[in-house]
Amino acid sequence: MKTLCVCLVIVLTTALFCRQAVAQDMSIATSEIVNNQILQTNLQIQINQQIQNNLDIQRNIMMLMLDDSNNINLKYNYLVTMKDNAQLVVHSKIYADTARHKTYLLFVDKKYSRKDTNRNRKIYVSQTLSIARKMGSGSSDKDWDKGMATDSCWMFKAISGNINAYAAFSEDGLGLTPPPLMAIQKGDGPIIKLSASNLKPMVEQDAGALKNIQKKNYYRAIEKYNHDAEKSAKK
Q: What percent of the chain has pLDDT over 90?
């Protein structure tokens, strides 16, 4: 009888231990599921924010391109490198396709007659690797304004320094108004949408730059910060 009781205690103890182990495993599994769900939610929020930023940039670009009254999107000779590495010289302004949400150049192939439908050809940004505009009379890199191809538009570096700034147009900044900026980059970091909330952390405690951000003069704010940063580095 004593032996039977001992066996019964062992069985009950083992069962209780197994139940506790199972409960612990279930708790760990549940915790992992919750953590994974949180990570997935945070990732989706970041993706949605990036999509919204891209849409905002695209919308701003389209509005500027549809405004024929401005002098910031003129016709130039662009050297375009296609995805098959073929190169074309295209005399065009940068146009906006509002249906496809992409920018393009209009290439006029003069070997076709004016009545031929093949004469005008749209070169979409998504078909290209890069774009460049001849700025000077020489052949060095500094004589070219080189742009990168993104999913929706070409981006030209408008300001270089500790903070780089990018515009959707290739302009020399010699006009009455500076080129409209679309994106910014601190050092070699990621290129992100230009906004007050994104620019403020980049200029740190530069009072002059912050004052210009407050006035929404982002171009001047970036130039002020870059000037002060360069001056400080020389000390």
A: 51
